[in-house]
Amino acid sequence: MDHSEIVFGILGNAFHCPVMGEFEYLENALITVDTAGRIQAVLRPEEYQSSGIVQALEGQGRLQRLTASQYLIPGLIDLHNHAPQWPQMGKGLDLPLYDWLSNYTFPLEAKYQDLEFARQVYGDLVQSTLSSGTTSAVYFSSLHLEPSLVLAETCLDKGQRAFVGKVCMDDPDQCPDYYRQSAQQSLYETETFNHAVAGMKGNQGLVSSVVTPRFIPSCTEGLLKELGQFATANDCYVQTHCSESDWARDYSQQKYGETDISVYERTGLLGRKTLLAHSIFLTNQDILIIKDRGAGIAHCPLSNMCFANAAMTTRELLDQGVHCGLGSDVAASVTPSMLRSCFDAVTHSRVREEGTSTHRPAGERGESNTRISLVESFWMATAGGGQSLDQNIGLFKAGFGFDAVVVDAAVPDCDLTIWPGMDSPADILEKIISTTSRHNVTRVWVQGRQVIDKKTAG
Ligand code: GUN
Ligand code: FE
């Protein structure tokens, strides 16, 4: 075997989900990484034992062995995060969406004109998301061009795979005067931002720009059309909020007599590289259109619990094969942890469940078959996110970017406990999804580069 392309190898126990709804436990596997940061091979003991590769890599100091308490999982993918809202996290989540945006979000986002403030907050946010195991993040920035570039540069500098959008808002009916741009300025700055991100020194595809109309109430139809034309002509990523609450859904109906999806489709904003946050109130026709275009949905379970006044039809979307991943929706959440989003996606799916009391007739309360499993939620935060982004990430598979996280159960004072002889691989994965805290995340790699290394007792 030719080992010259291999930069390093990791030997240990790993979990991933090559098929939606199923997990694979790779016990004592050897994962090798090439000079481009891609996975070169994933080998089981019977495949590497007689080859001498482990000894060769170890002899050259290029082998990392995981301990028995450490598990490797694919890097977590956050499909929806509002970077400037990081200082807002934990505030006002008992308010309706419109009040929350007006009272907290818009005044805070307006502060990012101050570049020094942007540097401080974005440095802290990107460090925290990486430290929680988020190797890829799709960010809304603020309205401002230069501070949005600060966010893109921070991601590149710290080594996070990122998709960053300068937010567009021009409708005077819904956007405050202090936090709004003209359609012309919004489009010009979107074009400039797109160009600048592609040209950032050292950016070899790690950071991409995203065309970002905030949501239908914040944009005039003219701006939506201009952004749609630009995104189509330049094959850009697009992100926006879609049918996220009663209020937002009704707004589109009243203004256009259409669903959000119909408006995005008509204005050229819906394609393979479009990410739709929330998407709670979809019609059957909407779902067919999303599927046909290959757009992705960012399910944000905790945020939906706060603002949607309804539950997401995750089970149905997954069953229909719609591209679907998870988003933290910081700051409409209380943590950037994508494993917490996994757990919340499961509980969210269960609130729709039919009551099963023998005293109540079937169908009286709730619906049947709404539940998703912990493994399905983990698929969404890894492989499903990669599929939504149309990127080769989220799996341990040759040719995929080596984005990976070590979860260590041996760190002191934590809830993740694995009991020898009592926990099967399925139990261990469920515990990792449900109880991992940031302290358990001890090492993180993005595209083969180690970006987090916490020295631990383990
Ligand atoms: N809809 C429009 N803007 C926002 C935002 O910043 N957060 C959430 N959760 N929903 C939105
Ligand atoms: Fe959001």
UniProtKB/TrEMBL annotation:
Please name the GO terms of the biological process aspect recorded for this protein, alphabetically. Answer: guanine catabolic process
One annotated Gene Ontology cellular component of this protein:
cytosol
**Ranges for domain Amidohydrolase-related:** 71-451
Provide the cofactor note recorded for this chain's UniProt entry: Binds 1 zinc ion per subunit.
Q: Identify the cofactor(s).
A: Zn(2+)
An example of a GO molecular function for this protein is:
guanine deaminase activity
Q: Which reaction does it catalyse?
A: guanine + H2O + H(+) = xanthine + NH4(+)
Pathway it works in: Purine metabolism; guanine degradation; xanthine from guanine: step 1/1
- Purpose: Catalyzes the hydrolytic deamination of guanine, producing xanthine and ammonia.
What protein name does the entry list? Guanine deaminase
- Source species, please? Parendozoicomonas haliclonae
